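Researcher: Here's the sequence for the chain we discussed earlier.
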Amino acid sequence: MAILLGIDTGGTYTDAVLLDDGADRVVANAKSLTTRPDLSLGIGGAIDAVIADSGLAPEAVALVSLSTTLATNALVEGQGGRVALIFIGFEESELARADLKEALGDDPVVFVAGGHGHSGAEVCPLDEGALLAGLETLSGVTGVAIASRFATRNPDHEVRARDAVRARLGVPVTCSHELSQALGGPKRALTAVLNARLIGLIDRLIAATEAHLTARGIAARLMVVRGDGALISAEIARERPIETILSGPAASIAGAQWLTGEQDALVSDIGGTTTDICLLRGGLPKIDPQGAKVGPYRTMVEAVAMRTFGLGGDSEVRVLDGLEGGLVLGPKRVMPVSLLARDHGDLVHGALDKAAALETPAEEATRFVIGQWADVPDALDPREAAVVERLENGPLRWADAVQSRVEIPALARLVQRGLVLICGVTPSDASHVLGRLDDWDRQAADKALSLMAKRRIGSGDRLASDGQTLASQIIDQLTKQTSEALLETAFAEEGWSEPASMARHALMRAGLADHNDVVRISAGLAMPVIGLGASARSYYGAVGERLGCATALPQHGGVANAIGAVVGQVVIHAEGTVTSGGEGAFRVHLPEGPAQFGSKDAALSALRAMLTEQTQAKALAAGVEDIRISESLDLREAQIEAQVMFIEATMRITARGRPRIAV
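Model: Thanks. This is the structure I predict for it:
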């Protein structure tokens, strides 16, 4: 029998599962808390636990595959390394397009003259002097993104800039033409910026996994799940981590179909940070033709058509302003109070007991701050450095970590960079109070929710009568927001405009309640919901009742991501274009620059040969032996006065197959 090891590293848990490839059965599964900043502890814990539970020898593992939600979570929460953008041939005003300026935030941009035209011809020489001068101004960056005008038609300026950055700064560099062959400079730049921001995160994850596999004597090939559910080598994932956004959710879709056999369903995967929802049609996930959208950003990465919502078991519970008060969950993740208390009980219980003596505790009474760095970070401003210094000896109460109002923005920046984590009340704490979970410190959860219940809303009333009541309100809010997320996804798939508004419309609420008076209104989902995630069994029964649909809660749904990680195939795409260079001239856009041919067939043949060579080489490097090649061609021509005029052709070559399994 061939044993496959699937690993999924999420925001809260790292899951591991062993599959018998011959019998299509789960041999064993295990969970371990995801440990930051040292991911190796959580990964190692999950691998060790699943090996021990199976009774198998580590060397029996023939293939390892890794999926993760870390890249998705980082983009949703606005985290990642500090990067710089080299913007070649673009005006400053173009930063406002494709959410590029918002994604950059305070990160530096170096504007450089240069770029090419639609034909691939140089329209302005690369200003190497300005480039080198700009590089001298950069400090404290963990990566650099480079985007040049029409680099997909001719990447020469991006390549020369990349070489200069590597020589001067020695940091990872991402060129936009390496991630997508589509036009749209600002959107390509956005994708490159996000990729550069994620390189350190994914590199640490893969390194931690490889180190533990080696330590345990597991010599099997390591694969990583891409955002469309296909497998790629760890080496490619290191260079292009942006392709792993929605990796965990894509793996969960494959796992859901493998576990349930459902052909048509809405798959909803609740994790610690996000709820990810995708439509399953004919047993396959829908691929987003516009590129993956995570949080506010639309990238050029091909991925499953997944809608990601900042809603999970560890979502921050926030109290709404206004007379009515009320709750909202997310989109930010915080560490549950009950989890922090498991390892730092004296700190948490001491702080909560002290606050409980007050008639009206401060809003921050249930919040704590935890450092998340392996080495003391550099490039901090004085206020950030002051907060970091206080946290060097361990977690603190929020009021002890932030000692003046001017330090609050500094703390927010540290959180954004992933250097600090906030701890607060979450649905996971509410589940402990209600007895639905018993993993961590229930007593700390009781105290935290009792404190939060004492908060005053706009009317002057308390938020809730006691902690138990508040816990029920939090779980009800989770059910409500999950239902709205599913409805929003369903309306979007139906092609309705403003799906978010439709999901929350008063008529929709009336229909879900089967309103029947002067007007009769009934509404619900017309297909089942597959609930995945460790906590799905606690929440999704109520979601199905609210939406009037069947819910499938598979036995191993808590590790569906890890299962999906090892049941996929390697799929390598390469895409290129042929454009018109005038009558009788056909221009092929190759990596080394444009090449001109005298006939359409000759140009297409040259492009086909180059793309096929690329895909076969990458598939072989990924360990695929039985490679299957397919081709798609989008040919644009126009009929003008009985004559066919060539405009443009886009060719895609795909190589696919299962990775080699060592036996």
